[in-house]
Design a protein that fits this description.
homotetramer, 346 residues, alpha/beta, Rossmann fold, Dihydrodipicolinate Reductase, domain 2, 7-stranded mixed sheet, 6-stranded parallel sheet, 19% strand, globular
Chain lengths: 346, 346, 346, 346
């Protein structure tokens, strides 16, 4: 039995970790922390948990947390994560960090998009936890940087094409849309029901969203050359889900049929990637609550562009589910353990 | 391994049965039928299932279905169920019927609210499958009539009071509200997104809803006397959930504290009923995707009325989850097997 | 041209007043105030207004406001209203107050449900602004207490029966459900999109909601005797609308047909009350954005109860629309002026 | 007073025409037709209209319709429109056609995307009714082809750039998302509440959507050269609104500031186009129920791409509101008459 702590448990990704880990046969959740709600029962904050998980939230004292757990999920805002992760590592624990703090290899890039990095030493040791492209490095890793939600949806959409060198790497546009859980659980007017409901909007347009350097880093590694992308996120009035519609240009003319074959081969055996048959398109509704990434590559034969549509649940494959997948790989459990639940539809 | 068939698999309760049974370690789903979609893969209709359940839907030929399964879930409209259930029973199968056809003990009552009953012989053998009040009869039953969604939420709300004879049985009002899955998956203008969204309405008011005789039958049995209720269903713009707010009058003055105690005692040990602590009220959001019924009894001390608020997921405790619970009891599996998943929130 | 100020303009009722008043041919909006957003343009807060109403929000300095306006709408929280209304009245202005501060005739009742009343002197002068039952007193009034949203929906539902003495006044239950704008625009976790969406819940059950004394006061006046009600509010995942389902008992057996006739006669000529034909039920969707109250009275012949279903838009007939209606009556404009817009559906 | 008929009144665009025209001081609606619902009152289908518009729906007999109206709005499916429009024109009526039948100048293009055109003679006489780029030709026109919803949002987004020759016309991607009213009111499983709610999906990707030739025709005319676009529509779980995010490349480097200035100059004096200040982005929520198109052009300085985000209400500026705007221009009414209503928010 693996003892596990969740640091920052009172947010949506924390709750989702609990939901998934309570169905995992090899895990015991032994410690939950929350800055704002220490002393309260987690089931008072999230009544879904009542009778199943009634742990009391603790203050975040890293040494005490480390005493209770073999592996720690850090579901904290950026900066807060790197203030505690070094302690966990020093004490010999495995860490799966859901923040942005260990995703960017270059501390200067982190500094340019966030603020000066406090822990560059561990940056080098961190493994970017996108299993589909870096599974072998995740095995046994001490520190896994769990990928961001938008990056997951976009990197999986482009990996086959970039890896094979089939597209113009200078011509990539990712147009994405996220459910509102992506904005977290902080009390802000912008996240109020009546502000979000019945509206669709773009935000952070024009190259300003902080997921951009993460996406570019990973796409560049896949391409073997440095590349830039145009990325526009949108907000959808729904709880969960990210759909990315990615546009690019092939080096040589291709067909939808060829692309589908390419993607099916590339992702053969992947337990959580489903390449849809030609003619089908993904919906976030079809992955809700599951760890799947659904992909549909296709060609617009009139203009020659390639379009790839990808769908994930931002809280599962885009955050907590992927974190559990990484835990499974790190610890040598079957990769799908605890993640077999089917999507909830409707 | 129990081989199981789902007759009428292309509706929402059928899909929910698949979702739950695929997480059940003792069950194999061997046969799915659909009148409208025979020949198509279930995963083409519900892409959530892709890669996990790709069975082909079959025509409903009872003998062939029976050959493939030990236990059959019938998720058909009323009347269609009683056209096939007798064959399944004759062939020695267990049947859990999610329609209304075997819920009413008196065929004349069925006739008055629906149409003449075709199979009164089996009516007597059917067990009304609300485990919390009839668990012992469900064990080993050949035919379980799975309760309706509204009745489940209302009967569980009133059982402790009626069983103990604490209220005026002539003064019961149940005001309920359901998510849109309750209307099924038929293509009707009234169920279109834009007709339902951003509106809240009553329907079937004034004693006309067909769940009334079922509710009254079971409440009368609990009370030991014949009673009538006033019941008003409403439609909520959301996918899942039923919340019932039930009003009644105590024979003797009581307090919220006493009621909470009474309910906690009555439902002690029940795996799927959660009596909330005083001061908390249920939300359908907190049971979404789970088999829980959340209950909060309270007293309006100004008027002396008792109010009980109950919440279920209409597709789970109100249909398919309760059906799996009944299967577990019928077959001697642990009652919670396959139903341990936590609610999906948000 | 009537010069009008809106005090507390940055909330949803303030915005709705602007929306309606900008279509009113006899009104000029000359002043908007906001405590939190003074100095900002209202159209920066509500971009719907851009290019149509770009006034700058001012601090609430009562004398300065009064200089700019003949009539003032106070859309403030309770208590804040009675801190400024006396000044407006002293300066000879008309006030239509959308808060609870002047709705309860008895300052002790106010004290029991809210806090000690600061301005009992003006309480006596205030007219409760439900035009359908008190139109003549509203004409020329200096201070109109604009009714609450739930009270409007419930009083209009019961007025014909109580006025005619047809029901047992001790047996009234009002089960109501409101859209989320009813919770206002404050940044609270409970009002976040993901906390509200896809859930239906009761709140303030058991006789604790502050609209109760207002409802009971007005129903008692109609009945000519003191009465108490049981009232349960619910929260619906939608922006706008209140539906109330009201249960009571007739003194003498009656029929739906008789009730519909009674209601049609009672509300004959009322521009904003629609009594639906027998067989139709209201939906909040059908009044969204309009000042209508839709009513359907009916009899449950099995139990003898009377049920009345009423629907309003909580921001229009339940707040700002009714306030404009009151302004029209106060000032002698045609009562429907500026309120002729049809509901927005879908 | 202009007598107006609406042919195909029982759909959402028909209803929206009624909503708008009933606030228009110079118009009387004299005739409504519906194939499916002839003989029923329009207010039985859309209870929002009860008491305000209770006209009985008639069969579509063109000559009888023409007798009752000076101007006819045809809100029919494609093909059905061109079966009746010739009769209306022959009888000397003005027609504003909301279908696709008269939008494409070249009948062969129509044939390639739809089916053989039945009425090429009138194609030449039809004026494409996008007032912002073709106002002078609309004046007095007999037949106005009212633009499609997606085309309206995309053409307005690109017109300033193409007209001035500032972009590479071969490099245009339009990524759009629509509310569900865009799918109409037909009873289809795909449009059911539970199929649409809580999901975001692409559809018609890869150059197959029938609005493409319309968009390309108009953009090519603006550019003065033939061009192709890549267009991907998406479905958003909300009633109304289209947001288009358009990507292109400038011929010469530019800045957001320059673009905003360019757009503000280009659309100066346009009553229904709002160019947002730098730093603001549109939301469909801010135009809901209004005839505005909100535009935000910007530059992604990292990649050099231009991004334009545009928002309209698909039923208003994307259909019925624009049709009323065209009627105003055709008939010499002030262009904003009947369209002054502010957006409904929330």
């Amino acid at each position: 039995m693996l003892n596990v702590a969740i640091v920052g448990a009172s947010g949506y990704t924390g709750l989702e970790l609990i939901r998934l880990l309570y169905c995992h046969p090899e895990v015991a959740v032994t410690c939950l922390t929350s800055e704002q709600s220490a002393g309260r029962k987690i089931s008072d904050i999230f009544p879904t948990l009542r009778g199943r998980c009634d742990l009391t939230l603790e203050n975040l004292e890293p040494v005490r947390v480390a005493e209770k757990a073999d592996l720690i999920f850090t579901a904290l805002p950026h900066k807060a994560a790197m203030e505690v992760v070094p302690t966990f590592l020093k004490l010999g624990k495995h860490v799966i960090d859901l923040s942005a703090d260990y995703r960017l290899r270059d501390p200067d890039v982190y500094g340019a998009w966030y603020e000066p990095h406090l822990n560059p030493a561990n940056l080098k040791k961190a493994v970017y936890g996108l299993a589909e492209i870096r599974r072998s490095k995740i095995r046994g890793a001490r520190l896994v940087a769990n990928p961001g939600c938008y990056p997951t949806s976009i990197i999986l959409a482009l990996a086959p094409l970039l890896k094979k060198g089939l597209i113009h790497s200078g011509d990539i546009i990712a147009d994405s849309a996220s459910g509102v859980t992506g904005a977290g659980r902080a009390a802000k007017v912008d996240s109020l029901y009546c502000e979000v409901n019945e509206g669709f909007r773009a935000y952070g347009a024009g190259g300003t969203h902080r997921h951009i350097p993460e996406i570019e880093q990973e796409l560049s590694l896949l391409a073997g050359e440095s590349l830039l992308i145009t990325f526009t996120p949108h907000l959808v009035p729904m709880d969960r889900g990210i759909l990315s519609t990615v546009y690019t240009r092939p080096r040589q003319a291709t067909t939808t049929e060829q692309l589908v074959k390419l993607y099916q081969d590339f992702y053969k055996g992947e337990p959580f990637v489903r390449v849809l048959p030609q003619g089908s398109l993904p919906s976030t509704a079809f992955v809700r609550g599951s760890n799947f990434c659904d992909l549909a590559p296709l060609v617009d034969s009139r203009t020659g562009r390639i379009i790839i549509v990808s769908a994930i649940d931002n809280l599962v494959k885009g955050a907590s589910g992927q974190a559990v997948q990484n835990m499974n790989i790190v610890c040598g459990f079957p990769e799908t353990m605890g993640l077999e639940g089917l999507a909830l539809f409707p």
